[in-house]
Amino acid sequence: MIPDLAPLAWAGLVFATLFVGIGKTALPGIVTLSVAIFAAILPARESTAALLILLLVGDLIAVWIYAKDADWAILKKLIPSVVVGVALGTAFLYFVSDGVMRRSIGIILLILTALTLLLMRRGTAETIKEFFARRSIRSLYGALGGFTTMAANSGGPVMNLYFIASGFDMRRFLGTQAWFFFTVNVIKLPFSAGIGLMTSEVLSIAALMIPIVIVGAIIGRLIVKRINQKLFNAIIIGLTIVSAVYLVF
User: Fold this and answer.
1) DSSP state, 30?
2) 158 with 148: CB under 8 angstroms?
3) Half-sphere exposure of 169 (CA within 13 A, CB side)
4) Where are the domains of the chain?
5) Is this model's pTM higher than 0.90 or not?
6) pLDDT for 34-43, tens place per residue?
């Protein structure tokens, strides 16, 4: 069942889906724009489900490209707290309204971004890495990442901040991020299905958009070859702030 949307709405979904592919292979922060566009066009819960399928397609492409670059030690340590966050996000998604959901996650992202940037500004590279290597801090970011990604597919900014603050270079960042979100999104899938989000309409939209994800991934590969680490970090932080402000207001 294909939803009856205006041509402009379909164009918006196409651009948002391109951003999914680009985000998974080059600029992770841009996926938050996809979240915003999908939520503006579709009801929040349906947009979350349709985008989850497209994110999984992007994850598979990114995992294939960056298979050898993931930091498996960090991933193994993050997963337990992420699972807790996903469970909490599922309950939050089920009980609260769309408006409360968006504003809550936007506020979380703004606070977390401000605190992360403050810590990065005041500390040395070594002390910052030691701080973010602590179990309590890792668990906090993992749980928040699981919560925000389940509630509104907005876990990317949380984990992107964590990886940047931990001193990951571009390929290590992209490889770890690819495997992290592939694992998280697979975990999310039965939760989304269990609360009735995977409707025929959602599946129809996702099926139409999958080829666009692949095109976006190709564009992303071209982009990542042309940017340096400093610009990479700045873009991700900037996109995190933009997405948080959008969700709040």
Assistant:
1) G
2) yes
3) 4
4) 7-248
5) no
6) 877 888 888 8
